Amino acid sequence: MMGVALQDGDGSTPCRVLTKGVVRLGAGHIEDSGGTNGNPLYVGDTSAHVAFAAPGSSGEFARIVGYCLVEDDDIIYFNPDNTYVERS
Q1: Rounded to whole angstroms, how far apart are CA atoms 41 and 79?
Q2: What is the DSSP letter of 26?
Q3: What does the alpha-carbon distance between residue 69 and residue 67 come to, in Å, rounded to a whole number?
Q4: Helices and strands of the chain, counted as H and E runs
Q5: Mean pLDDT for the chain overall
Q6: Would you give the DSSP letter of residue 74?
Q7: Measured between alpha carbons, how far is 12 from 52 in angstroms, rounded to an integer?
Q8: What is the per-residue burial (b if ≥16 Cβ within 10 Å, else e) of 52-82?
Q9: Residues 31-72: pLDDT tens digits?
Q10: Distance between terminal CA atoms of the chain?
């Protein structure tokens, strides 16, 4: 299961986690700027980031985690797909 933390945790107190819905990511958490609003977003190369570009190297896995709503403000619809594909 994937989720987006909605607050900072301290390791001992649980924090709220979004598993599906609209969320504003931290500035710069969309790794690239090669897409437009409405485009799918994939798991990014950097931890806690998403990207418009699907992984391109052999052996990497591509998984859609949501869709971009407002790129300039890092607002996405987070809805991780259960399907993933290994690049060959």
Answers
A1: 10
A2: P
A3: 6
A4: 0, 9
A5: 91
A6: T
A7: 34
A8: bebbeeeeeebebbbebeebeebebebebee
A9: 988 899 999 999 988 888 999 999 888 899 999 999 999 999
A10: 25
